[in-house]
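TASK: fixed-backbone design
INPUT:
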């Protein structure tokens, strides 16, 4: 499991490295468009196709993960490829990493009636982030 040479397909070119760095510095699960914008600030003239191709490559090679929040939403990119869950703000779209440990017994219970064999899970909890909740409370509060 310790190859002496890295296959060409896994090699980082300076452009790939810049895109990967931008993703690693992004805590907000950016879309491809967000990443393009940020990379262009760092590498002027880098093309959209390069950024999109590199993101696909990062996902394929297991260095980044895709995150889909819903049919209408653009695919987001996640720098963390380890199993984790997400808190999704329905108001501002903020996505926060969180761990929701599900009991394996619970998974078995869910799978039992359907004979489904779960191999993993990921949870998206929808609601309002602290900032939006505070803003709402302020607005709804009316007369202060
Ligand atoms: Zn929010
Ligand atoms: Zn995440």
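OUTPUT:
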């Amino acid at each position: 499991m310790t190859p002496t040479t890295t296959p060409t397909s896994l090699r980082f070119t300076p452009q790939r490295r810049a895109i990967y760095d931008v993703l690693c510095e992004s805590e907000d699960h950016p879309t491809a468009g967000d990443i393009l914008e940020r990379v262009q600030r760092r590498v002027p003239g880098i093309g959209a196709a390069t950024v999109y191709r590199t993101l696909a490559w990062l996902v394929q090679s297991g260095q980044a993960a895709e995150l889909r929040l819903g049919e209408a939403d653009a695919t987001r990119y996640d720098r963390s490829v380890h199993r984790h869950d997400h808190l999704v703000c329905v108001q501002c779209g903020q996505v926060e990493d969180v761990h929701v440990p599900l009991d394996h017994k619970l998974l078995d219970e869910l799978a039992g009636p359907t004979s489904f064999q779960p191999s993993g899970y990921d949870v998206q909890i929808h609601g309002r982030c602290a900032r939006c909740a505070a803003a709402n409370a302020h607005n709804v509060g009316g007369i202060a």
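COMMENT: The first strand starts at residue 65 and ends at 67.
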